[in-house]
RNA sequence: GCGCUUGUGGCGGAAUUGGUAGACGCGCCAGACUUAGGAUCUGGUAUCUCCGAUGUGCAGGUUCGAGUCCUGUCAGGCGCACCA
C-alpha cells in the first residue's frame, strides 16, 4: 500500500467540512483558548510559500491545545479594504469589490488545500456592511468621548478610574464648560489638541458651530487641522506608518507635508497606557522596544523664557538692538515686571521643553521650528527678509530631503530670550532641525552637551560653554548624561539668581533644577510623547464610509440605529473634477434627517437633507477590533455580546509579521483600550502572546546582459564585462542553470539574444536571497508543493526549516527529506500488510484481536498490527517523543519536535514495533503537524471519530528510567572516555571506578589528582596538577 | 547615532540549570537491490600533521569545566532616526 497523499488529503478535507469538525461554540465546561492569525489582505498575487508559515505554526498550536482538551477558537477572515484593489479599479473600471471577492476566493481555495482548522463559519470581511457597521459604531463612540486622567466633577461618582486616565462621555465635559469654562480643567489631565482658555459665560454664549469646533479639541475622534502626509500620486493622505523614506508604502509615490482638515484619533491620549500595557503582555523584546520607541516617552521640564526684544511691529528695526538692554529689568523672579518693550504683555515669553534641565547655565542660543507660530512674533523688521527667505527654503524641502541630508541651516530672528538662570540674552534662531510637532516647537540650545546644537553653534560661530567637569568640547559635544556639573553658574561671573548646581551629578542637577523651576513658577515638570494622533480619513473610495453628515458645517453623527451606512455606488473611482474625493461622484449620498435615510444628493436643502462625509476610513480601521468580532461574528445587536466576550476574553496567541509593530499593533491596542473603557471588551490588551513569524525569502536568479548589447554572459565570466543583472523567473532555472529557450520565450524582447555559455555548455545564473515578491520573479507558490508532495509534507517542511520566528530562504532541497519521513511513517504504521485480500475487512480485525498478547509475535496481524503490547524499548522511544513534543510545541520549537519524531520513528522501525498502543499514540502526536495523515491512521486503527478530539498522550517518566547510566570521564575538563554505571551509583563509587579504570592511567601519568568533580549522571571530571 | 537581534560543518539548523559541540534533515561518499533510478535500503561524513591536537565571528576574563556567564570588539539583519 503506497502513501497516496492526494487521496487521503482530499478525503479528509471533505470530511472535515461535512462533519463541521472545526466549528466551535462557547462551551463553559471547557477552558478556552483563542488562537489568531493576522488576517491577510487578499492580493491579486495569491498566496506564496511565505504566507502559510505563520498559519501553519498557529494551526499546530491550535490543534495541540484542542488535543489537550481546550475549546479552541481559531478563526480566519480578510482585511478586504485597501489601495491595490482600488488602484486596479481605477485602471480597469472593475468594481474593487469584484476583484476583492475574486482574490478572496482564490485565497480560500489555496488555504483549504493546506488543511487548516479554521472555523470558517466565523469568517469576517472588513468590507462587509455587517462587519463595518461596528467599525462605524466605534468611531461614533470615539466621537462622543473625551479622555481625562481623573474624573471631572461632572462625572458620575464612584466610578473606578484608571491610573493613567480613561475615555468618558463628552457630555461630562460639556457640563463642565457650562459651569466653569476651562477654569481648573488642567487639574483633571484632559487630553486636548491645544490648551484653550474660555469662561463659562463665553461657552454659553457661543453658537452650535463654535461649540462644535471647540469640542473637537477634546473628542477622541475629532476633525482637526493638522499637518498630514499628502500623497498626490494616490490622491490621499497617509498615516506615518504608511510612509517610508518619504514615499508611500503602497505604490512608492512621493509624499509631502500639507496642512489639511482631517478626521483624527486621539491615540496620544492613550500613550501612557499603551506603554504600561507592554509590561503585561508576552511579546518579543524587539517588538516591545519598537513600540516603546514609537510612543517615545520622555520626561523633562518645560521652562519659560521671556522675549527680550521688541516685536517686529515696532516702528524702527534699528532700535531693536537698543531695546535689548532696556529689558534687563525683566527678571525670572519678576513675572509681574514691566513688559512694555514687547508691546503686548501676553506672548512676551515662550516655553521650551528639555530633558536636560541641568544644562540651563550652558544655553547660548534658542531655536524655534520654522513652522512655529512664534516665528512671526520674534522676527524683527531687519531680519524679516532673511527669515522669510529661510522659511521659503524650508517649505521647498521635502520630508525626504530633510531625512537624507541633515545639513545645518538656520536664520537669526533678530530677537533674544532671557535665560532665567543667567539673565543672559540668548539670540533666538530659527532652524529646521527643531520640529514643530514635538514638545513646544522651541528649544534652548546647549551646544556643549547636545550634538545637534553643537553642529549648529560651530556652523554659525555661537559660543559653547561646557558644564561638566573634564568634558572636552573642542571637537565634539559631550552628550552623556553623567559627570559632575560645573560652570553653573560660572565662577568668574556674578550669579544672577541664588541657585547653583556646581558639584552635583547630572541626575541631581536635573532634579534640583526641576524643583527650582516649579517653585519659581517659570515652568513645570512635563512628560512628552512622540506618539502622534492618528489621521483617520482617506480621500479614497474603497474604505468604510464615515457615518457623518454636515449640518450647516457641523459634523453630525448619523443616528446609531441607522448604521451601517453603506458605501455608495459611484461611476468612477477617481477624485471628482472639483477635486473632491471619489465619494463626491456618488449621486445618492445625502442624509435625510427626518426620514432617517440616505437620499439623492439633489435633495440637499440644508434644512432637513444634508451632505454626507466624502472621506473614507483608513486601512487600520477595519483591522483594529476584528478579533472581538470573531467571538460573535453574526451578532447584529452588538459588536460582541457580553457572554461571548467574557468567555473568549482576548487572544491567547496572536501570530503575524513584525512589520505591523508600529501600525496595526498600536492601533488595535488603542482601539481595544477604548472599548475596554466603554465596557465592551473585558480585557485591556487584545493580544496576550505574540509570535512574529520570520519571513521566507526567495532566491532570486539573475542573468547578466553586457551593457548596450544583446549578449548575455554566464556567471563565471560576468566580471570580465560591464553587465546589467536582470531578474529571471525562478521556474526556468534549475540548479542555477538557465533554460535558455524558456528564457527567450518568457522574455520575447530577448528572442534573438546571444548567450555566451560556460565551458560545460551551460548558462549559470547568479542568485541572491531577497524578499519574496512578484517583481523579483522569485515567488514560490504553495499549490505546486501541495500538488507534488501533499499538504502534510508542506506543513511539516515549513516547520522543519528552522525556528518559526527566524527568517530563512526558501529552499526546496530539504523537502524530499520530510516527504521521505512521511513515507517511512506510512510504511511503519501500515505494516504488516493486511493478510486479508480486502482492506475493508481489516477493520473488523481490530476488535477480534484481544486474545493476542505481546508475547505472541506469531499472532495473526491485522493491518496496523494492534496485536502486540509495547516493549520497554518501544515505550521508552515513544515517551521520549511525548515529553519532547509536549514541551517543544509549547515553546514553538517545531523543528526540534519534528527531529524528535524522526528519531522516534527510526527507533521504532528498528524495534519492528507492532503495538497498537504505540501506533495510536503516534497518530495523535502527528495530528498537529500532519492532520490528514493522522486522521487516516486514526481511522485505519478503527476509530470512527476525528483524531482532533483524541486525548493528548500522558507522559510517563517511568518509561524513561534507565538501569544504567553512562558517565563521561574527563581530565581537566577534557572528555576522554565513557563509563557505564548502575543508575543508583554513588558519587564516591563513580569517582573510585573512574580513577581505577585502566584507561585513566594514561591521562594521569606525571600528574597528581587535585580533586574530582562528579556530576551525577553526566560526568566525572578529574582535576590534575603537576 | 540609538535600540533590538543574530553569528556553530558544504547547507538548513540541534545542544534544560555552564557538564561528551554538531541532534535531525539536506547534500556528498561508499555499498546493496535493480534493465534502469531523481525509487528503496545499509554504512560513512567538523578540521588537521588522525593512537593525538584544534574547533561555535574575534580578543580577553570567570570556572575543575564556557557555544552557553562577564567585558571589549567585529560583521550581518530589523526597527527608530534632528524627538531637545
What does this structure look like?
- The chain is α+β, with helices and mostly antiparallel strands.
- Helices cover 31% and strands 18% of the residues.
- Strand 7 and strand 8 (247-248) form a beta hairpin.
- The protein is globular and about 95 Å long.
- The two termini are 67 Å apart.
- It binds one RNA strand of 84 nucleotides through helix 10, strand 11, strand 15, helix 15 and strand 32.
Oligomer: single chain
Principal-axes geometry comes out as globular
The parts where pLDDT drops under 50 for at least 5 residues are 312-346, 833-863
- Beta-strand content: 15-25%
Characterize the biggest β-sheet.
7 strands, mixed
Give the terminus-to-terminus CA distance. Answer: 67 Å
Summed over residues and divided by their number, the pLDDT gives a mean of: 85
Q: List how many beta strands DSSP finds.
A: 36
Provide the descriptors you would attach to this structure in a database record.
single chain; 1026 residues; alpha+beta; seven-stranded mixed beta sheet; 36 strands; globular; RNA-binding
Amino acid at each position: 500500500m503506497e502513501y497516496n497523499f492526494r487521496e487521503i488529503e482530499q478525503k479528509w478535507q471533505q470530511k472535515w467540512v461535512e462533519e463541521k469538525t472545526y466549528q466551535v461554540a462557547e462551551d463553559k465546561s471547557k477552558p478556552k483558548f483563542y488562537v489568531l492569525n493576522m488576517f491577510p489582505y487578499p492580493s491579486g498575487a495569491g498566496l506564496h510559500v511565505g504566507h502559510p508559515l505563520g498559519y501553519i505554526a498557529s494551526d499546530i498550536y491550535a490543534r495541540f491545545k484542542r488535543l489537550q482538551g481546550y475549546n479552541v477558537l481559531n478563526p480566519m477572515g480578510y482585511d478586504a479594504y485597501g489601495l491595490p484593489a482600488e488602484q486596479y479599479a481605477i485602471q480597469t473600471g472593475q468594481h474593487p469589490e469584484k476583484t476583492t471577492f475574486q482574490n478572496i476566493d482564490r485565497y480560500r481555495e489555496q488555504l483549504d488545500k493546506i488543511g487548516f482548522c479554521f472555523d470558517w463559519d466565523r469568517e469576517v470581511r472588513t468590507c462587509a456592511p455587517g462587519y463595518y457597521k461596528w467599525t462605524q459604531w466605534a468611531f461614533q463612540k470615539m466621537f462622543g468621548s473625551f479622555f481625562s486622567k481623573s474624573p471631572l466633577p461632572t462625572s458620575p461618582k464612584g466610578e473606578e478610574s484608571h491610573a493613567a486616565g480613561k475615555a468618558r462621555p463628552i457630555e461630562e465635559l460639556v457640563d463642565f464648560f457650562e459651569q466653569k469654562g476651562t477654569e481648573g480643567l488642567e487639574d483633571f489631565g484632559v487630553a486636548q489638541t491645544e490648551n484653550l482658555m474660555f469662561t463659562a459665560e463665553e461657552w454659553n454664549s457661543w453658537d452650535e458651530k463654535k461649540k462644535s469646533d471647540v469640542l473637537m479639541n477634546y473628542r477622541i475622534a475629532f476633525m482637526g487641522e493638522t499637518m498630514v502626509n499628502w500623497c498626490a500620486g494616490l490622491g490621499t493622505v497617509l498615516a506615518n506608518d504608511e510612509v517610508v523614506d518619504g514615499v508611500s508604502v503602497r505604490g512608492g509615490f512621493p509624499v509631502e507635508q500639507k496642512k489639511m482638515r482631517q478626521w483624527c484619533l486621539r491615540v496620544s491620549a492613550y500613550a501612557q497606557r499603551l506603554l504600561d500595557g507592554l509590561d503585561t503582555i508576552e511579546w518579543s523584546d524587539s517588538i516591545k522596544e519598537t513600540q516603546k520607541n514609537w510612543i517615545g516617552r520622555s520626561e523633562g521640564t518645560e521652562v519659560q523664557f521671556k522675549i527680550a526684544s521688541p516685536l517686529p511691529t515696532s516702528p524702527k528695526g534699528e532700535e531693536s538692538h537698543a531695546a535689548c538692554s532696556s529689558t534687563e529689568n525683566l527678571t525670572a523672579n519678576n513675572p509681574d515686571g514691566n513688559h512694555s518693550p514687547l508691546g503686548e504683555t501676553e506672548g512676551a515669553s515662550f516655553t521650551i521643553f528639555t530633558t536636560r534641565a541641568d544644562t540651563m547655565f550652558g544655553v547660548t542660543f534658542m531655536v524655534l521650528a520654522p513652522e512655529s507660530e512664534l516665528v512671526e512674533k520674534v522676527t524683527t523688521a531687519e531680519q524679516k527678509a532673511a527669515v522669510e527667505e529661510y522659511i521659503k527654503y524650508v517649505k521647498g524641502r521635502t520630508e525626504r530631503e530633510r531625512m537624507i541630508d541633515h545639513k545645518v541651516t538656520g536664520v537669526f530672528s533678530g530677537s533674544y530670550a532671557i535665560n532665567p538662570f543667567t539673565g543672559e540674552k540668548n539670540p533666538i534662531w530659527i532652524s529646521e532641525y527643531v520640529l514643530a510637532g514635538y514638545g513646544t516647537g522651541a528649544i534652548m540650545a546647549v551646544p556643549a552637551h547636545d550634538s545637534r546644537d553643537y553642529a549648529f553653534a560651530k556652523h554659525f560661530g555661537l559660543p559653547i560653554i561646557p558644564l561638566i567637569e573634564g568634558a572636552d568640547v573642542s571637537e565634539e559635544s559631550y552628550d552623556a548624561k553623567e559627570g559632575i556639573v560645573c560652570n553653573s553658574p560660572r565662577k568668574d561671573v556674578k550669579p544672577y539668581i541664588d541657585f547653583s548646581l556646581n558639584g552635583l551629578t547630572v541626575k541631581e542637577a536635573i532634579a534640583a533644577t526641576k524643583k527650582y523651576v516649579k517653585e519659581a513658577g517659570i515652568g513645570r515638570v512635563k512628560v512628552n510623547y512622540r506618539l502622534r494622533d492618528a489621521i483617520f480619513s482617506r480621500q479614497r473610495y474603497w474604505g468604510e464610509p464615515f457615518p457623518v453628515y454636515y449640518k450647516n458645517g457641523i459634523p453630525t453623527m448619523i443616528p446609531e440605529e441607522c448604521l451601517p451606512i453603506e458605501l455608495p455606488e459611484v461611476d468612477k473611482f477617481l477624485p471628482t473634477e472639483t477635486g473632491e474625493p471619489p465619494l463626491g461622484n456618488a449621486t445618492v449620498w445625502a442624509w435625510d434627517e427626518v426620514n432617517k435615510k440616505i437620499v439623492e444628493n439633489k435633495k440637499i436643502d440644508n434644512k432637513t437633507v444634508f451632505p454626507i462625509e466624502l472621506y473614507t476610513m483608513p486601512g487600520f480601521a477595519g483591522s483594529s477590533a476584528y478579533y472581538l468580532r470573531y467571538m460573535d461574528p453574526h451578532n447584529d445587536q452588538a459588536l460582541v455580546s457580553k457572554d461571548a466576550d467574557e468567555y473568549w476574553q482576548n487572544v491567547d496567541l496572536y501570530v503575524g509579521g513584525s512589520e505591523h509593530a508600529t501600525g496595526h499593533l498600536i492601533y488595535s491596542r488603542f482601539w481595544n483600550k477604548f472599548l475596554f473603557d466603554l465596557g465592551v471588551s473585558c480585557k485591556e490588551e487584545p493580544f496576550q502572546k505574540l509570535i512574529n513569524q520570520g519571513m521566507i525569502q526567495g532566491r532570486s536568479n539573475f542573468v547578466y546582459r553586457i551593457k548596450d548589447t544583446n549578449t548575455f554572459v554566464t556567471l563565471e565570466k560576468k566580471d570580465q564585462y560591464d553587465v546589467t543583472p536582470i531578474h529571471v523567473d525562478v521556474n526556468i532555472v534549475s540548479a542555477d542553470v538557465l533554460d535558455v529557450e524558456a528564457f527567450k520565450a518568457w522574455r520575447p524582447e530577448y528572442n534573438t539574444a546571444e548567450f555566451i555559455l560556460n565551458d560545460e555548455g551551460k548558462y549559470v545564473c547568479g542568485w541572491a536571497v531577497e524578499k519574496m515578491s512578484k517583481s523579483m520573479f522569485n515567488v514560490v507558490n504553495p499549490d505546486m508543493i501541495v500538488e507534488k508532495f501533499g499538504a502534510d509534507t508542506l506543513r511539516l517542511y515549513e516547520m522543519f526549516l528552522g525556528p518559526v520566528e527566524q527568517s530563512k530562504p526558501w529552499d526546496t532541497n530539504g523537502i524530499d527529506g520530510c516527504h521521505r519521513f512521511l513515507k517511512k511513517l506510512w510504511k511503519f504504521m501500515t505494516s504488516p500488510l493486511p493478510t486479508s485480500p480486502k482492506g475493508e475487512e481489516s477493520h473488523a480485525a481490530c476488535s477480534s484481536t484481544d486474545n493476542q498478547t505481546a508475547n505472541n509475535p506469531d499472532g495473526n496481524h491485522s493491518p496496523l498490527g494492534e496485536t502486540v503490547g509495547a516493549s520497554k524499548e518501544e515505550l521508552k522511544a515513544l515517551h521520549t517523543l511525548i515529553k519532547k513534543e509536549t514541551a517543544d510545541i509549547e515553546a514553538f520549537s517545531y523543528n526540534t519536535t519534528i527531529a524528535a519524531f524522526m528519531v522516534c520513528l527510526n527507533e521504532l522501525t528498528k524495534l519492528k514495533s507492532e503495538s497498537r498502543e504505540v501506533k495510536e499514540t503516534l497518530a495523535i502526536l502527528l495530528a498537529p503537524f500532519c492532520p490528514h495523515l493522522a486522521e487516516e491512521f486514526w481511522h485505519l486503527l478503527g476509530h470512527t471519530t476525528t483524531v482532533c478530539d483524541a486525548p493528548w498522550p500522558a507522559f510517563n517518566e517511568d518509561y524513561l528510567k534507565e538501569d544504567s547510566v553512562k558517565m563521561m570521564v574527563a581530565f581537566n575538563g577534557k572528555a576522554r572516555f565513557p563509563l557505564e554505571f548502575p543508575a543508583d551509583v554513588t558519587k564516591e563509587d563513580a569517582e573510585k571506578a573512574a580513577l581505577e579504570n585502566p584507561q585513566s592511567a594514561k591521562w594521569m601519568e606525571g600528574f597528581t589528582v587535585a580533586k574530582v568533580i562528579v556530576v551525577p549522571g553526566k560526568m566525572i571530571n578529574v582535576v590534575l596538577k603537576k
